[in-house]
Amino acid sequence: MLSAKLFAALSVLQVGLAVLESRTTPQPIAIGVHGTYLLIGRMALQIMLALACACFALTYFAASRWVSHPLNNSLGLMHFAITTIAFILLWPSLETLKSSAAANGLPGQAPNHWPLFALLTVLCFLFGCATLAVNFIWTTLATFWSH
Prior knowledge:
two-stranded antiparallel ribbon
Protein backbone atom coordinates (compact mmCIF):
# COMPACT_ATOMS: atom_id res chain seq x y z
CA MET A 1 0.00 0.00 0.00
CA LEU A 2 2.96 2.30 0.62
CA SER A 3 4.07 1.94 -3.00
CA ALA A 4 0.60 2.91 -4.21
CA LYS A 5 0.65 6.07 -2.11
CA LEU A 6 4.15 6.98 -3.25
CA PHE A 7 3.30 6.50 -6.93
CA ALA A 8 0.09 8.51 -6.54
CA ALA A 9 2.05 11.35 -4.93
CA LEU A 10 4.67 11.21 -7.70
CA SER A 11 1.94 11.34 -10.33
CA VAL A 12 0.34 14.41 -8.75
CA LEU A 13 3.77 16.06 -8.49
CA GLN A 14 4.50 15.36 -12.16
CA VAL A 15 1.19 16.82 -13.30
CA GLY A 16 1.72 19.90 -11.15
CA LEU A 17 5.23 20.44 -12.49
CA ALA A 18 4.07 19.88 -16.06
CA VAL A 19 1.35 22.50 -15.71
CA LEU A 20 3.73 25.00 -14.10
CA GLU A 21 6.38 24.41 -16.74
CA SER A 22 3.90 24.70 -19.59
CA ARG A 23 3.21 28.28 -18.56
CA THR A 24 6.91 29.20 -18.77
CA THR A 25 7.98 27.19 -21.86
CA PRO A 26 4.93 26.28 -23.96
CA GLN A 27 6.85 25.74 -27.22
CA PRO A 28 7.42 22.15 -28.35
CA ILE A 29 10.82 20.62 -28.91
CA ALA A 30 11.76 19.84 -32.51
CA ILE A 31 13.76 16.67 -33.05
CA GLY A 32 15.28 16.21 -36.49
CA VAL A 33 16.37 12.74 -37.55
CA HIS A 34 17.42 12.19 -41.18
CA GLY A 35 15.17 14.91 -42.55
CA THR A 36 12.14 13.92 -40.48
CA TYR A 37 11.10 16.33 -37.77
CA LEU A 38 9.07 15.41 -34.73
CA LEU A 39 7.47 17.99 -32.48
CA ILE A 40 7.20 16.82 -28.89
CA GLY A 41 5.65 18.92 -26.19
CA ARG A 42 7.47 18.90 -22.87
CA MET A 43 4.14 18.81 -21.08
CA ALA A 44 3.07 15.77 -23.11
CA LEU A 45 6.14 13.80 -22.01
CA GLN A 46 5.61 14.67 -18.37
CA ILE A 47 1.89 13.90 -18.53
CA MET A 48 2.62 10.49 -20.09
CA LEU A 49 5.05 9.71 -17.28
CA ALA A 50 2.46 10.93 -14.75
CA LEU A 51 -0.16 8.61 -16.30
CA ALA A 52 2.28 5.71 -16.08
CA CYS A 53 2.86 6.48 -12.39
CA ALA A 54 -0.90 6.68 -11.82
CA CYS A 55 -1.25 3.25 -13.46
CA PHE A 56 1.50 1.90 -11.20
CA ALA A 57 -0.32 3.35 -8.17
CA LEU A 58 -3.56 1.73 -9.29
CA THR A 59 -1.77 -1.59 -9.84
CA TYR A 60 -0.24 -1.61 -6.36
CA PHE A 61 -3.54 -0.51 -4.82
CA ALA A 62 -5.52 -3.22 -6.63
CA ALA A 63 -2.94 -5.86 -5.72
CA SER A 64 -3.09 -4.88 -2.06
CA ARG A 65 -6.88 -5.18 -2.07
CA TRP A 66 -7.54 -8.23 -4.25
CA VAL A 67 -4.53 -10.53 -3.94
CA SER A 68 -4.31 -12.78 -0.91
CA HIS A 69 -0.50 -12.58 -0.74
CA PRO A 70 0.66 -8.95 -0.90
CA LEU A 71 3.30 -7.70 -3.31
CA ASN A 72 6.83 -7.45 -1.97
CA ASN A 73 7.24 -4.04 -0.32
CA SER A 74 11.01 -3.87 -0.92
CA LEU A 75 10.58 -4.48 -4.64
CA GLY A 76 7.79 -1.90 -4.69
CA LEU A 77 10.06 0.70 -3.10
CA MET A 78 12.83 -0.21 -5.54
CA HIS A 79 10.37 0.24 -8.41
CA PHE A 80 9.42 3.65 -7.03
CA ALA A 81 13.06 4.71 -6.64
CA ILE A 82 13.98 3.67 -10.18
CA THR A 83 10.93 5.41 -11.65
CA THR A 84 11.75 8.56 -9.67
CA ILE A 85 15.29 8.48 -11.09
CA ALA A 86 13.77 8.29 -14.58
CA PHE A 87 11.57 11.29 -13.76
CA ILE A 88 14.58 13.24 -12.47
CA LEU A 89 16.64 12.32 -15.57
CA LEU A 90 13.85 13.60 -17.81
CA TRP A 91 14.72 17.23 -17.06
CA PRO A 92 18.40 17.17 -18.11
CA SER A 93 17.36 15.19 -21.16
CA LEU A 94 14.82 17.80 -22.19
CA GLU A 95 17.13 20.72 -21.34
CA THR A 96 20.04 19.33 -23.39
CA LEU A 97 17.62 18.58 -26.21
CA LYS A 98 16.34 22.16 -26.13
CA SER A 99 19.85 23.65 -26.01
CA SER A 100 21.08 21.40 -28.83
CA ALA A 101 18.09 22.39 -30.95
CA ALA A 102 18.82 26.08 -30.31
CA ALA A 103 22.49 25.68 -31.28
CA ASN A 104 21.78 23.41 -34.24
CA GLY A 105 24.70 23.49 -36.61
CA LEU A 106 26.65 26.33 -35.00
CA PRO A 107 30.41 25.72 -34.88
CA GLY A 108 32.19 25.64 -31.56
CA GLN A 109 29.18 24.40 -29.62
CA ALA A 110 29.38 21.77 -26.90
CA PRO A 111 28.79 18.17 -27.97
CA ASN A 112 25.21 16.96 -28.06
CA HIS A 113 24.53 14.78 -25.00
CA TRP A 114 20.73 14.53 -25.18
CA PRO A 115 20.70 11.01 -26.66
CA LEU A 116 22.66 9.76 -23.64
CA PHE A 117 20.29 11.39 -21.15
CA ALA A 118 17.26 10.19 -23.12
CA LEU A 119 18.63 6.64 -23.22
CA LEU A 120 19.29 6.67 -19.47
CA THR A 121 15.77 7.97 -18.83
CA VAL A 122 14.15 5.29 -20.95
CA LEU A 123 16.35 2.53 -19.49
CA CYS A 124 15.53 3.58 -15.92
CA PHE A 125 11.82 3.60 -16.70
CA LEU A 126 11.99 0.18 -18.40
CA PHE A 127 14.06 -1.23 -15.54
CA GLY A 128 11.36 0.01 -13.17
CA CYS A 129 8.72 -1.79 -15.25
CA ALA A 130 10.86 -4.94 -15.13
CA THR A 131 11.02 -4.58 -11.34
CA LEU A 132 7.21 -4.52 -11.24
CA ALA A 133 7.12 -7.69 -13.37
CA VAL A 134 9.62 -9.37 -11.02
CA ASN A 135 7.45 -8.32 -8.09
CA PHE A 136 4.41 -9.99 -9.68
CA ILE A 137 6.38 -13.14 -10.45
CA TRP A 138 7.81 -13.19 -6.92
CA THR A 139 4.33 -12.83 -5.43
CA THR A 140 2.88 -15.51 -7.70
CA LEU A 141 5.60 -17.97 -6.76
CA ALA A 142 5.24 -17.16 -3.07
CA THR A 143 1.48 -17.71 -3.31
CA PHE A 144 1.88 -21.11 -4.96
CA TRP A 145 4.61 -22.21 -2.53
CA SER A 146 2.53 -21.25 0.50
CA HIS A 147 -0.41 -23.47 -0.57
